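Before the break, one more example. Copy the sequence into your notebook; we will annotate it together after we see the structure.
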Amino acid sequence: MKVKTCGLFRQEDIVFANVLQPDFVGFVFAPSRRQIDIAMAQKLKEALLDSIQAVGVFVNAPKEEIAQIARLKVIDMIQLHGDESEEYISELKVLCDLPIIKAVCVRSARDLGVVNGADYMLYDALNAGSGMRFDWGLLEGFCAKKPYFLAGGINAQNLAQAMRLDSYAIDVSSGIESHGFKDFEKMAHIIRTVRAFPSVDENLSNEEKR
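Here is what the structure looks like once it is written out:
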């Protein structure tokens, strides 16, 4: 299982990431208290370890704007968190040769059945970045057609429950903050706990040894 720490906007956040080494970090380009501009994203990306992938988070942004940021090599992946259509995703893929994550705000089981041309799905609560979660019970027994990121209200208290679900990655933002800023200790706890969680392959290997 992988981990993404989203909403990094300070140099200190990059220092934390380089020490703890999550698989992904998220730069938010959409309107948000965590929003950064291209210039700041470039500075943060330059300081980020090459082994950590930077995900650009966009909401209904012009495709050309995303393509420009991609050409500057500020991001390694694209996360679409708005009402982007299948046509939008197809056209963006022509402009940018980067993996795409499509976020879906989950209201009911029907939302989990949404399939599009993105490479990954991301299941989130209705108010992204608010620290709220959706009904994770909807994911129990769910057979995902694509690898998915689980987001929305994940923190130290419910992390164990989140990890029991069959997600590709845990995506945290407000759950690793104190007073609106990334907290090293909270970030460390989440990342180290996920790192210690056995993967499906490891579970199979253990079963084979018995």
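The CA atoms of residues 1 and 199 lie 6 Å apart. Residues 200-210 have pLDDT under 50 and may be disordered. Try to locate both features in your own notes.
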